[in-house]
Amino acid sequence: MFLGFCGSLVVALDILLIPFHGEDDAFHWWILYLVLGWNLLFLNLMPIWGRIRTPNLAYFDRQTGKVGYTFDIPGCEERDEFGNCCFDWRDMKCVLVNQSTDQGGSRAFFPVISHKDIDKYPQTKMTIVVTELAQDPIYCLLFWERLVRFMDNTKPLPDIPEYEGYRYLDPITAEFDTHNHRPEMYWRDMSFKQQTEIYDELYKEACEIDWYNDAPQPEITKPWQRWTPEPERKETLNWKYKAKQLFLQLTCGIP
Questions:
Q1: Chain-centre distance of CA 9, in angstroms?
Q2: Residue 253 region by backbone torsions, left for phi larger than 0, else alpha for psi between -120 and 50, else beta
Q3: How far is it, in rounded angstroms, from Cα 193 to Cα 199?
Q4: Which helix (H) or strand (E) element contains residue 87?
Q5: Using CA of residue 143, residue 149, residue 153, residue 158, what is the dihedral sign?
Q6: Are 128 and 112 in contact (CB under 8 A)?
Q7: pLDDT tens track for 82-136
């Protein structure tokens, strides 16, 4: 996307310089074709390229309490229904590290998840990039808290936008939502901007918590009592929205 954006700037500059072009220095159409071609290829073919070679991934199974890997791990003694190596969730650990990044040698925090016996299973090590430049460890703590909460299948799923469309698939969550009188559509009635505002509000509250000494915070089980959706703020699929998305796709390769 960065290359597409820079290429679009070059095209825009070339257009602005058209009045100053000499007779032998016409508009460089090949730059425009190259930028459009790159953005369209990046946008539409990247998902296909990702399927040609199976990536090395780890997945967390809430139902079985297992952590699986799409690649073989020497010494692995258990496999799941997909035939992949897997380990018990309770055997996994998370370590917070602060190390240099590729962005000018700056330092950032990263959560590193691995099997507790890292010497025996070094391939289980995963360094998670929680944000572009996590100079504050709070991002890592929130990531680990969310993962721990997801894997705790004795409790319903946290009430967050990412899980709303799938809550009915989890029996404990579905039963809890029925007794809790949860609206079927809550987060989806909000605009992304309103959801972002709520996230910023909760992030500010999380920064004020002493994660190492304070008692666990009470869960928000009825967010609709705290925040009221504002459907009028949602972006509609009108011609302005479509034109904006098309412009972003062609100039920056943004999906």
A1: 28
A2: left
A3: 10
A4: strand 86-88
A5: negative
A6: yes
A7: 999 999 999 999 999 987 766 556 788 899 999 999 999 999 999 988 886 677 8
Nearest to 199 by CA among 121, 122, 139: 139
Look at residue 22 in the predicted model and tell me its pLDDT: 65
Please write the tens of the pLDDT for every residue from 140-167.
Answer: 999 999 999 999 999 999 999 999 999 9
The pLDDT mean for the chain works out to: 87
Write out the two tokens for 49. 């390229």
CA torsion, points 158, 159, 162, 167, in degrees to nearest 10?
80
Query: Rounded to whole angstroms, what are the CA distances from 204 to 38, 92, 149, 201, 208?
Result: 39, 29, 20, 5, 7
- Closest by CA position to 50, among listed 70, 32, 30, 68: 70
Residue 18 structure tokens: 């058209």
User: What's the number of CA atoms in the CB half-sphere (13 Å) around residue 215?
Assistant: 2
Handedness of CA 34, 39, 44, 46 (dihedral sign): positive
The SS3 assignment for 208 reads coil
Residue 128 and residue 113 in contact, taking contact as beta carbons nearer than 8 Å:
yes
Q: Which two tokens stand for residue 61?
A: 């199974």
> Whole-model pTM?
0.74
Integer angstrom CA distances of residue 90 from 4, 85, 93: 44, 16, 8
